[in-house]
Structures are given as C-alpha cells and as structure tokens.
C-alpha cells in the first residue's frame, strides 16, 4: 500500500504542465527514492528491535525510535507519522476524485458527478463522493482495509501492464506514448507474474473484497455506462489483426487523437475542426457516379440518424 501513491501521479496528469516529460520522470524518481527510503527505515527498525518485539508491535517505527531516543523520540515519530497519514488522506481524496470525474466525462457515470465548482474550478461532487467512500471504509477492520487496498492497488498494476501489451499489439496509428517501457514485452509479463504472486500472498479475504469491487464496477458499466457511451476496445483491434477481419471503426483512433492533442497542447484551427468532423468514405475500387452518390447519401443518412438518436437521448436525460 505504501507504493499506492505512485498511481496518484498518473491520475492528475491532465493538470500537470508538460505531462509527457514530467509524469514519467516523477514516477521513476518516486520509485527510486521511496525504495531507498523504505529500505533505510526497515534496516533501522529491524536492526533496533528484537524479533519478539517486532513481531508483536503495531507501531514498529515508533517503537524503534523509542529504543534509542526514549519517550521524546517515540512522541516525535508518532506525531510525524500521524501528520503524514493526514496529508496522505487529503491527497488521496484529491487524486481519487479524478476517477469519477473522468468516468462522468465519458458518460460512464452520471453527469452530476462531473460538475465543476464555478468559483473554485474543482470537481466538488466527485470530491464529496470520494470523501464519503473514505469515511465508510473507516468502519472496516484495519487489517482487512489495508489488505484490500493493497490488493486493489496491485490489481491496478496488473491491469496497467495488460493494457500496455494490448495497446502495443493493437498497432493503433494514434497510440503514440511519449515514454515506452524498455524490454517489451518481458518487463510487462514479469511484472504481471510478480504482482499476481503478491496478490495471492495478501490473503483470500482481501482478494474477495477486491473481486467484489471489480464485480460492482462491471455491473455499473453494463447497467449504466454501456447504454450511454459507445466505446471501442483496443482488444478488438488485436483480434482484428489476428483474424484479418474488420471488426472496428475509427472511434478509438479519434479518441487517442484527442488525447495526443491535449497532451501536446496542440491548438486546432477551423480547418482542423472541419476535417475532424467530416465523414470519411473509404472506396475499395472504382465506382460509377450514381453508385458514388448513393454511397455518400447512405453515409450521410446514417450520420443523421445517429445525431437524432443522441439528441433524443439528451432530451430524455434532461
């Protein structure tokens, strides 16, 4: 769970200047320094406390400080850890609120969740919702809560590595990451195996809680999000390549196109917007003029029907 804060760096990447350079650098530097810091803390704690005291302690760092700094050291370390937990909780609310905000933007969550405060320019509904969930989690047993949180974080790393493999193998033209993990796909496969081993080591009760959250998320998607948002999966592009059969449209390419423009802060002019909104007809071979007009007419009619359905759905939602 201690490395869970690394996810927070990615969750606010939209609000980071020069994200394509800062986010990868922040992740790498954070892993490096956190690993060194924790290694030092463990070295001191294990070297200071005897095995029996360490095994039975719920506050090993404070007890270690007490062994060579006395009551003053115990108090200082305890207050310091308490303050660090408070700042971690506040930061957790900040970062975690960006997930429901993003889901709301993609129409996978109710629109009210994505509301922005007019004066503070913050997603206040998403922040309040996240705070309520954190308060509810306080009623769980501490040991189960820590294990469940660790399992969910480890699961996130597993899915992230799977997503990298799927996106790379999809060979989408607009998938142009600014940073690529070296030694692909061995790094991803090794990471998946190691994280699955850690998940299994956490315990069955924590895995059950994580699976419960996963089931709830899938249920929300199928019961709410899928009806309101048309999303295309990168996995379909992989299957399309394997079967050599057209299964997808250009919707995912367009979505990645918008992400690249937002990341690189590309300013689009009127011509760019017209090209983006234009319908594209891919002709496989020569056509008679009347057949060409019929093809154009059918394409425009399909677009008009889709726009009518979207407009009708918006009216119903209001």
Secondary structure topology:
Blueprint: H1 5-11, H2 19-48, H3 51-55, H4 60-96, H5 98-105, H6 124-137, H7 142-170, H8 186-202, H9 204-228, H10 234-243, H11 251-264, H12 270-277, H13 289-317
Helix pairs in contact: 1-4, 2-4, 7-8, 7-9, 7-10
Q: Please provide the count of β strands.
A: 0
* Regions with little confidence, pLDDT below 50 for 5+ residues: none
Mind telling me the C-alpha Rg? 25 Å
Q: Note the overall shape.
A: elongated
Oligomer: single chain
Question: What class do helices, strands and sheet pairing give?
Answer: mainly alpha
Mean pLDDT over all positions: 81
Head-to-tail CA distance between termini:
41 Å
Write down the secondary-structure element order. HHHHHHHHHHHHH
Helix share bin: over 70%
Beta-strand residue fraction: under 5%
Can you characterise this structure?
The protein is mostly helical and 318 residues long. The chain has a domain at 281-318. It has helices at residues 5-11, 19-48, 51-55, 60-96, 98-105, 124-137, 142-170, 186-202, 204-228, 234-243, 251-264, 270-277, 289-317. The radius of gyration is 25 Å and the shape is elongated.
Task: For this entry, give a set of tags.
single chain, 73% helix, mainly alpha, elongated, 318 residues, 13 helices
What's the short version?
By secondary structure, the chain is mostly helical. It has helices at 5-11, 19-48, 51-55, 60-96, 98-105, 124-137, 142-170, 186-202, 204-228, 234-243, 251-264, 270-277, 289-317.
